[in-house]
Amino acid sequence: MIVATTTGAPRRTPLWGQLYVQVLVAIVAGAVIGHFWPSTGEALKPLGDAFIKLVKMLIAPVIFLTVTTGIAGMRDLAKVGGVAAKAFGYFIVVSSFALIVGLIVANVLQPGAGMNVDPATLDGEAVKGYAAKSHEMTVTGFLMDIIPASVAGAFVDGNILQVLFFSIPFGLALAMLGERGEPVLNLLTDVAEAFFKLVAIFMRAAPIGAFGAFAFTIGKYGIDSVANLAALVATFYGTSLIFVLGVLGVIAALTGFSILKLIRYLKEELLLVLGTSSSEAALPSLLEKMERAGAPKSIVGLVVPTGYSFNLDGTNIYMTLAALFIAQALGIHLPLGEQLLLLVVAMLSSKGAAGVTGAGFITLAATLSVVPSVPVAGMALILGVDRFMSECRALTNFVGNAVATLVVARWEGVLDREKLAAALSSPPTPVAAPPIEADED
Question: Structure pTM?
Answer without folding.
Answer: 0.72
